[in-house]
Amino acid sequence: MAFRAVLSASRNHCLHGLVLAGALILTLEPAPVWAFGFDDVAEKAKGLAAEKFGAPASNLPAEFGEMKFADYQQIRFRQDKAYWSDKKTPFKLSFYHQGMHFNTPVKINEVAGNKVAEIPYDPTRFDFGGLKFDRNATRNLGYAGFRVLYPINGAGKRDEITTFLGASYFRVVGKGQAYGLSARGLAIDTAQPAGEEFPRFREFWIEQPKPQDKHLTIFALLDSPRATGAYRFVLHPGRDAVVDVQSRLFLRDKVGKLGLAPLTSMFLFGGNQPPAQPNYRPELHDSSGLQIHAGDDEWIWRPLNNPKHLSVSSYRVENPKGFGLLQRGREFSRYEDLDDRYDLRPSAWVEPQGDWGPGSVELVEIPTPDETNDNIVAFWSPASQPEPGQPLDLSYRLHWTRDEPGLHDRDSAWVEQTLRAAGDVKQKNLIRQPDGSTALVVDFEGPALKKLPPDAPLAPQIGVDGNAEVKENSLRYNPATKGWRLMLRVSVKDPKKPTEMRVALVNGKKTLTETWSYQLPANE
Prior knowledge:
The model is unreliable at 1-29 (pLDDT under 50). The protein has two domains: 38-407, Beta-galactosidase, Chain A, domain 5 (Distorted Sandwich); 414-520, Immunoglobulin-like (Sandwich), CATH 2.60.40. It has six helices and 33 strands. The protein has helices spanning 4-7, 13-23, 38-49, 62-65, 69-72, 447-450; strands at 76-77, 92-97, 107-112, 115-118, 126-127, 143-150, 159-165, 169-172, 182-184, 186-188, 200-207, 216-224, 227-236, 241-251, 258-265, 267-269, 284-285, 289-293, 299-303, 311-318, 322-326, 347-353, 358-365, 376-382, 391-401, 414-426, 432-445, 458-464, 468-478, 483-492, 499-507, 510-511, 515-520. Belongs to the OpgD/OpgG family.
């Protein structure tokens, strides 16, 4: 998976309206005639797909190719050398230097009106710290990726809001957010026996924005042994950042699992899976769960796990209305981390544009011993793949937000947290005796519950697979949150197998909440 230390660089109606308001700018100037556009990238991708894949060769000298992470960190971009510093546009660009496992350059071009030109590598843009190396050996290197700078947190600042670095990974933040999970252009054969294939963006074209522009357009050409692709990213900075994505893919050959609109995150431990060793941080994760808004309007919440064995969960959905990896719970006390600020890391929500047809939202959970590795992947997998050489078009909007309740309908309810502990039974002497079961606490909150009286006739609809038995369940009104708390005690039959559970709260025949879909991992 991605080396995170290096990469650290229903619908939301209000958010949608703000984005449109920011994007529709009245101007008396004629629209520019660009020399380059999406169709040009698509033609390049189509041509590549007809050719045999050529793996890029490293051009790094030994001192850069064998570089340790601490040395790579010494290479810093000089902010006074930011691209477009001489322009009045609020957008600026900075670049990542090659080094370590970023051993092949990506070509970065500027589109300015009717001209397209490569942005040449310039070593004077970097401060190399105390590194000792032959300057002549690096003069023909290139850039490993780039960052987008924009004054999101204050006028005149150059805040880093977007980064493209490594394979097809990119990350985005809005106002007051800290980098967390990543998006990707494409995932191929994730968690498949033959091993994952990592497509890479080999070339970019970035439109030079005008001074009044509040958006930035980026084109990218993707390449891998079995796929090519053309991408158009339109970045809208704001309190919550939005990226409009248009893509066209071409397969060179069949793949086992095609992952579209993929998201990659990290989950080490949390309330539903406490740390094995004492830790002053109660939770440590970039995302706490997978949320799905299905085409039939069902909402599903799946808390994440750090399993002992690879785990793949699949949710069949036709024409999904959205899915994403969310960081629910914004209180600092949940994380207690002053350095990494997990409470400020955004959720990423994929909002499909148009009908995506039948397929499934896939969740992959990979064991990890620490927070330096991404171990969570979520993506859309279509029910059928295009034939090699035939285009597959997909468009979606990516929201990077800290307003998780705003993703829901105005009159709904959701799972705020899931807690887990050893199950026990109260004895006649009032002492609780562990009985080998697992206790789960699920807190439901939201407008649909707040308007109900404490004695409302709510009931849980509980579904458990054949590997477990519900020994006890209790649903109570929670006056602290004006929601409801469900307490379950579950006895697992075979601990070597995972156990699947589903719960939703109903009032008569009306479902009031999203569906809590939980997997109790094996060997826990």
